[in-house]
Amino acid sequence: MNMHIVARVIFVFFCLLSGPLLAADSGNSSFLVLNYHDILEEEERVPPFDRIAVNKDHLADHFAWLKQNNYHVISVQDLLDCMKGDKVLPTKAVMLTFDDGYLSFYTRAMPLLKKYKYPATLAVVGSWLEQQNVPGVKPLMTPAQIREVAESGLVEIASHTYDLHHGIVANPQGNQQSAVTSRLYSNEYDEYEKDEDYRKRIFQEVDKSSERLFQILGKRPRVMVWPYGEYNAIALEATKLAGMRLTMGLNDGANTLADAYVMKRMMITDDVNAKQFGEIVKNQRVGQELRVAHVDMDYIYDDDEEQTEKNLALVVERIKASGANTVYLQAYSDPDGDGNADKLYFPNRHLPVRRDMFNHVTLQLRTRAGVRVYAWMPIMAYKADVPLKWYVKEWRDGEPQLSRHIYTRLSPFNPEARQFVGEIYEDLAKHCDFNGILFHDDGILSDFEDVSPLAMDFSRNVWGMPAEFDKIHASSELRLRWAQHKTELIGQFTDYLTDKVRFYRPYIKTARNFYSLPLLKPYSEEWYAQSFPAFLKHYDYVAVEAMPFMEEAENPKQWLIELVEKTAQYPDGLDKMVFELQAVNWKTKQDIAMPVFTEQFELLKKHGAKHIGYYPDNVFNDQPKLAELKKFFPVSRKD
């Protein structure tokens, strides 16, 4: 599949399905950035339709709507002046941006900008300037035309990189992904681009783009517009050293002045008319309800790679047909089903790789099924060849011993263990492109854990508590305080892991699996080191196990109702909670009957649940039954 098409599909879905925005008219505290690409005449709009192109007449209608509704179009210089304190952002502030330097900007957009006296930013790809009159390539502006619009005083010329607006081979399956954020994979040598080679490539490309625009304009660009909206901390460092104070991505959202170094932009897609455009600007694509399918990679994997691809095709088609808009995808291998990571599905420094396929599977789901993909990863449960002192200890028979819990957890108190897990997450982000992280349900410490020497020293020195287990356990007040500290410690550990990922994938969202009992009976935090308020603070979403049969609830319906009602008692509770139904009764080893599954789904929705998912999805068993699932699972899509 052509990388330009793949990337456009990914980012269209990413823009359309991302979270809620701030209001555009909230005084002078925020501004919107709108993004356009090619501008077409009506007769040019023939199949296959370019979803990111816009009819010239519609563009004129958009500009007229902005004027009629008292929006103020600001320039890059206006923004810089506001950042220095020389100006104040006007109410309803908007920036206009046009990507790629198509000739249609010169012939069709520029006359409209002059008519309305609207400033705009034009992002130019340096290497494309050498591709004039190439058959099959859209007409591009010449250097002379770029210089002319820049001299008009209305247009800021931004770098769109020199030659990074394309895909590179990013995995053994040959998939192409963003040249800015992907590590080049060599089939010849069966290896990925090394860190130093990647860094050198990005820095050279940024410098080269700056130099090319200097040759045309006599000055260097102040703005970098990232191709496909993809960037990372290394790319940002390169632009900063090249003197580009402002950069722009493609994630939906309103910006404050603090966001100017990496601005969010709302891509205008599907050639919307004035009314539709107005709804987008005013309502700003409020956050969509999540419909989540929880997929085991171990179901897709087969020793035969050809069979793996067949399995993947079945999963992609099933997810696409189901109406799901989000997939929690297992990034680790757990063939014995004990919840611990035995191997991983991506290159890394510490665990065996069952097969390097997470990035490949994620790309197929995102581009072919149109869903967001969260990498489902353990927090602490790794079966690794590491010293025993790294693992969680429980108090048993009067002394600390290795925990007997089914999860073989590395201790979050051990700095070496923390670094070990952090490097795994770092390697995931280096080699895979995904939308979010789902932290596994292994993030628990019981009221007998962790009593390793490091943990007890931490308890005394940092928390000011006794370092003796017996003293803590003898007091109900101390037991709860100990649990609350552990809850926060695990939350801070996942923040550390999130930061590792966001260095390479800044846009990712976070979710964490949550046991139901700490929500229904908050005092049970003592037994889990989990609490809903703490989770709301640390994560974008909380995925509660809404599984009454697993919990052996006497009245499953009432149990689910109570779960929703308890959630609703917390500010933002329903906005952030994902209710995960069970598709299998693990106690009876039977599939949940579809009438029961459907009834539970509708019950949750009736009582106010916004985000609903299920686990597991089994393509081979057709469970949940697709014919039924797709009747009630979809939500309204904006794609």
Structure, described:
The structure is a single chain. The strands form nine sheets. This protein has an eight-stranded parallel barrel with strand order 15-16-19-22-23-24-25-28, surrounded by four helices. Strands 1, 4, 5, 6, 7 and 14 form a six-stranded parallel β-sheet that branches. Strand 20 and strand 21 (399-402) form a beta hairpin. The chain is built from 22 helices and 28 strands. The protein starts with a helix and ends in a 7-residue tail after the last helix. The protein is an alpha/beta fold.
Write out key terms for the chains shown.
alpha/beta, 6-stranded parallel sheet, 28 strands, globular, 22 helices
Secondary structure layout plus pairing:
Blueprint: H1 3-17, E1 31-36, E2 39-40, E3 54-55, H2 56-68, E4 72-73, H3 76-84, E5 93-99, H4 103-116, E6 120-124, H5 143-151, E7 155-159, E8 167-169, E9 176-178, E10 185-186, E11 191-192, H6 195-217, E12 223-225, H7 233-241, E13 246-248, E14 266-267, H8 274-283, E15 291-295, H9 297-300, H10 305-322, E16 326-330, E17 332-333, E18 343-344, H11 358-368, E19 372-377, E20 393-396, E21 399-402, H12 415-431, E22 436-439, H13 453-461, H14 469-473, H15 476-502, E23 509-514, H16 517-520, H17 525-528, H18 532-538, E24 541-545, H19 556-568, H20 573-576, E25 577-582, E26 584-585, E27 590-591, H21 594-606, E28 611-615, H22 626-632
Parallel strand pairs: 1-5, 1-14, 2-3, 4-5, 5-6, 6-7, 12-13, 15-16, 15-28, 16-19, 19-22, 22-23, 23-24, 24-25, 25-28
Antiparallel strand pairs: 8-9, 10-11, 17-18, 20-21, 26-27
Helix pairs in contact: 2-4, 6-7, 10-11, 12-15
